[in-house]
Write a structure and sequence with these properties.
Helices cover about 55% and strands about 10% of the residues. The protein is an alpha+beta fold. The protein has 2 domains: about 150 residues; about 140 residues, Alpha-Beta Plaits (2-Layer Sandwich), CATH 3.30.70. It has a 5-stranded mixed beta sheet with strand order 2-3-1-4-5, sandwiched between helices. Strand 2 and strand 3 form a beta hairpin. About 5% of the residues have low confidence.
């Protein structure tokens, strides 16, 4: 789940950053807001001074607020990479103080600036627009966009890297618990599963211990290639003849084991006999016949280690009794399911 979360987080980061770039105000919207601020400033400029005796050149508080809003609009236009006509640039800048020698825009200048801004929304900027000061917003905007895309790609790389590492971890974990020759779970996984199943005290579990009869003769007579083929054939036969939920393992050498959750001795014996008969039907490319001896035991899952020992003892009893048979544990000391 953590790997999937990392990928989703990377994709979400890409989408959110892309959305942030595309959701930024358009130049048209920014121009409209700038026009509105200039119109508000023109209204305040046209108002006569209210306090009696005040200097007519001293701007009102409302005009100062509108003047600052116009300045903010100019900065927003530049950041958006919008072209600001010279007439509009003059009135968007802060009004010089009354005692300044700089030219102070008049009402007519504001009207001309507003018209110039409205017309610029429908006209392409001049050819030399990128070289003047009002065009520096293009560079800023482009830098932000490129940075956002770079961070988004980094998020995807991190997510994909986590997914790759997770898959690699799964592959290594599978190799660690799988027998390379037969493809069954190995002894290491068997021991882990026995420990886990032993914690389920309210269920019963059966175990089969399976030993290939006279296996050494296959290697001695026909070579190890024949012995490997026998092990592969037996493992496939066991896996095909156990039930869904049962798990087969290569216990070691020519021995196999099967754990049957929720299964008593009688049901486990039926499965064991089905497996034994199927092994007896294996056809080899050699002049040889395969049989197996199987031991069966079952009890409460909390005693599973004892169940395995009992099934192993029953398997040796089957070999002592003539091989190619199934023996069920008759040890009354194993606790039954209560």
């Amino acid at each position: 789940m953590s790997r999937l979360s990392a990928v989703i987080a990377g994709a979400a980061l890409s989408l959110s950053l892309s959305a942030a770039v595309h959701a930024s105000p358009t130049q048209t919207e920014t121009l409209e807001r700038a026009v509105q601020t200039l119109e508000d400033e023109l209204v305040e400029l046209s108002r006569p001074p209210q306090p009696a005796g005040a200097a007519s050149a001293e701007p009102t508080a409302a005009f100062k607020a509108a003047d600052e809003a116009a300045w903010d609009a100019l900065i927003e236009l530049q950041n958006a990479g919008a072209y600001v006509p010279p007439r509009a640039l003059m009135v968007l800048q802060l009004m010089p103080p009354p005692d300044s020698t700089a030219q102070r825009p008049q009402a007519e200048d504001y009207r001309l600036g507003i018209d110039a801004l409205r017309q610029s929304a429908n006209r392409p900027p001049p050819a030399n627009f990128g070289a003047n000061a009002t065009g520096t917003g293009n560079t800023t905007s482009d830098t932000i966009a490129v940075s956002a895309v770079a961070v988004a790609l980094l998020g995807l790389v991190i997510g994909c890297g986590a997914l790759w590492r997770g898959r690699r971890h799964d592959q290594l974990a599978s190799i660690a618990c799988t027998d390379g020759l037969t493809g069954l779970m190995n002894r290491r996984q068997f021991d882990l599963d026995v420990g886990t199943t032993s914690q389920r005290a309210k269920t019963c579990t059966a175990a089969l211990m399976i030993d290939v009869d006279h296996f050494k003769s296959f290697n001695d007579t026909y070579g190890h290639a024949c012995g490997d083929d026998v092990l592969r054939q037996v493992s496939m036969t066991i896996d095909r003849n156990i039930r869904r939920g049962d798990v087969a393992y290569r216990y070691g050498g020519e021995e196999f084991s099967v754990l049957l959750p929720g299964t008593d001795k009688e049901a486990a014996e039926i499965v064991a006999e089905r497996v034994r008969h199927a092994i007896e039907m294996i056809s080899l490319d050699y002049d040889a016949h395969v049989t197996a001896s199987i031991g069966v035991a079952s009890a409460a899952s909390k005693q599973l280690e004892s169940v395995v020992v009992a099934a192993d003892a029953a398997m040796f009893n089957a070999k002592s009794a003539g091989r190619n048979r199934t023996m069920v544990d008759g040890n009354g000391d194993l606790p039954a399911l209560v």
